[in-house]
Amino acid sequence: MMSSTEIAGFVMALVMVVCSIKELHWSWPLAMASSVLYFFVFKDSRLYAEAGLQVVFATLALWGWWQWLRKPNEAQATLVIQRLSARGWWRVVIASAVLWPALALSLQHFTDSDVAWWDALPTALSLVGQVLLGRKYIENWLVWLVVNVISVALFAHKGLWLTCVLYALFTAMSAWGWRAWQRKLKLQLQVA
């Protein structure tokens, strides 16, 4: 059954992703608010990694907001959309490969989670995706696409139907974000 907390988190999360796609810094405070709400939704559903992730998201949202708002100086250029290098991709793969089993084993040993490995996978990838988004790497949208597809199945299993719809929408929005940021990156490269 849907709660008012889930409904409010749903609305804020949708607006947050639209703001991220449009590179509006307001996405970050919306991320904080929706993360707080979804912490309670996931905790009540025994999705502990997802609940813990919401705390991390709220914290990372402060960092992301600072990244997007800070003024450049001589030593620091303005943050613009960029691509991962081959080395960056390796870091993404290694971080994901380390985080997933670490989170899953922690859930198995310290909680009563009935879906430890499936809860841990989108959580691990979400951590990576959030860092990529905060630094405006275009590949964040590909990571979110994978996270969202996995999450739809996980939330359906848990009967979180509104959140299931949200993550199905997030899947489409990830593709939209990828295309929008590709256009912006192309324009940036033409101007440079």
Task: Describe what you observe in this structure.
It is a single chain. The model has no long low-confidence stretch (mean pLDDT 93). The relative contact order is 0.14. This protein has helices at residues 4-21, 27-44, 48-69, 86-110, 116-134, 140-157, 161-191. The protein is an all-alpha fold. It has one domain.
Short description:
The chain is mainly α and 192 residues long. It is 79% helix and 0% strand. It is globular and about 55 Å long.
Features:
192 residues, mainly alpha, 79% helix
List the SSEs and their pairings.
Elements: H1 4-21, H2 27-44, H3 48-69, H4 86-110, H5 116-134, H6 140-157, H7 161-191
Please tell me how large the radius of gyration is: 17 Å
Helix content estimate: over 70%
Q: Count the strands? A: 0
H/E element sequence: HHHHHHH
Number of helices: 7
Beta-strand residue fraction: under 5%
